[in-house]
Amino acid sequence: MGRGRIPIGRRERAKEDKRERIMTAAREQFAEHGVSGVTTQQIADRADVAIGTLYRYASTKAELLIMVQNEKFAAAIHDGLAAANTAAGRGGVLEGVIALIGPVVACVREQIENGRTYLHELVFGDPAEPYRRMGLALAASLEDGITGLLTRDDYIDTADAATLARVITAIIHISTTATVYLHRSDEAVLSDIRDQIRTILAPHHRAP
What is the full per-residue pLDDT of the chain (208 aa) written as tens digits? Predict the structure, then answer.
């Protein structure tokens, strides 16, 4: 029994090592050149694996990008959620939401082409593909985080909070990817998002 387990462990370690090399190579290449300026062969060469090996981990360049961006997206959501509770306690629900989405905006705009392509792939790609499914789950967790913050507002019920969260995520998507906004700084984009969120929340605070 013991002998039979050793080769399996080695194979798993070897697979994980190759995956990490591919991820690192893809992350570096995409950061340096953008998704359109890189080929899968260049990524395979930097990772020191055969192109056929690379395709066992991700069958397209888009899937490689999603693998890389999922890690960044997850980290941004984690940081945003960590900051949101403090911000909401000090400045109210709006400030909590802005604290949550601030790292997400920075993540998507870190390399504009990569961020735009990533969001496009999540929206229009095959939702059953594993990496896209993971990305969509991350997007849902962002939406859930926004919903949770909005339910702290005494004037917003749970159903409205969920709907508003979907609207806010749509605002984030458009504000971070639309060509007309690409010249703006992250601060300007976030300020504009804040104004839009304030506007859609305002009717809930008006006296009946």
Answer: 455 554 568 778 888 899 999 999 999 999 999 999 999 999 999 999 999 999 999 999 999 999 999 999 999 999 999 999 899 888 899 999 999 999 999 999 999 999 999 999 999 999 999 999 999 999 999 999 999 999 999 999 999 999 999 999 999 999 999 999 999 999 999 999 999 999 999 998 875 5
Q: Return the residue matching tokens 């991700």.
A: 58
Range of the domain at 166: 61-205
Q: Does the model's pTM come out above 0.85? A: yes
The type of residue at 189 is V
**CATH code for the domain of 192:** 1.10.357
180 with 198, same domain?
A: yes
Cβ atoms of 32 and 24 within 8 Å: the answer is no
